[in-house]
Amino acid sequence: MTTVRLPLFPLNSVLFPGLVLPLNVFEERYRAMMRELLKTPEDEPRRFAVVAIRDGHEVAPSAPGLPDPTAVPERGPAAGFGADPAAAFHKVGCVADAATIRERADGSFEVLATGTTRVRLLSVEASGPFLTAELETLPEEPGDEAAPLAEGVLRSFRQYQKRLAGARERSLSTGADLPDEPGVVSYLVAAAMMLDVPAKQRLLQAPDTASRLRDELKLLRSETAVIRSLPSLPASELTRGPTSLN
Description:
Lon_prtase_N; Lon_prtase_N_sf
């Protein structure tokens, strides 16, 4: 078992290997994380782990509010995640490699990272200025019949895109250059589909590529049927998600 300890960045979204993650970093705990990552030489990976939040808040309350206007806001690296931060997060996440970390004049950061490797969360440490985690690297197994499953997923995904384009009264250009490597297909399609966090999390933690592709095939068929009935869903850019405000 290969383990590593990395800074931990919880989000209300799921990061997949190969996908781009833009971040707008303004909370002090994450500013401290970025300042620490900037100490790593530019020719070395500036890595941190992203996990989806199961129970908690991506941004900690910074002022008293409802229902108690006198409540004292939480402070520290685990603010918003309860007494046991590890219990607030999904157990499978993704390592991110920050290609760009740009500090603004106000001390906030603009970050552009890319997902690289799936990891399992083993423990969380909250004694420093930001959360860190011990992580186990997860293998990428192809599973049975991954290649033909990928072909079926690509066909279904193109139909899904056409339905989305019709719902938006626009054309989507992302389908023309889709790769055919099963593992890459499984992650790109998982990221591009309009699914909630629990559904995307299930795809991330699938035991192998074939299992993920089988689940995607079912989801694509059901989601395409939904779009046909309710043509008002938003479209998505394939390899980039919305900027997370942290």
